[in-house]
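Re-run with default settings, no changes from the original entry. Doing this only to confirm the output is reproducible before filing.
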Amino acid sequence: MLIRDFQLSDHGSVSMLLEDTLSEECFVETMQALGRQLSWDSELILVAEVEGQVVGTIIGTIDNNKGYFYRIAVTNGYQGKGIGMSMVNALKQRFQMRHVQKILISIDRHNEVAIPVYLSAGYQETDFARSPERLSIVKKVM
């Protein structure tokens, strides 16, 4: 398995992955957030690759010196194999290299199923940011 930067050539594979693993409403919101994050800072979007195939993605963002895990998705056949945890750890390193003051997990009704991944990575309930405002519409502040 390889965790690497998102490349524009990954857009189709990531889009299919997200469409297959997310609800329709969540997919639309996530694709909007992906587009915004690509225009702001593409280094906070990572993919997991197995044998040349994209099997996972994680989208992060930085806002007001806080790093946020926004969305994580792993292809159904690869869930439970540590891919999500590897992506969380890789994005955490990116946040640390950027000297963010705090790392939070954006939790909404669409991604509560991912809470166990973050808990396994050592995050606690106090690290969850439950906000009615979608990160896909938050203004970028550096």
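The radius of gyration is 14 Å. The chain has a mean pLDDT of 89.
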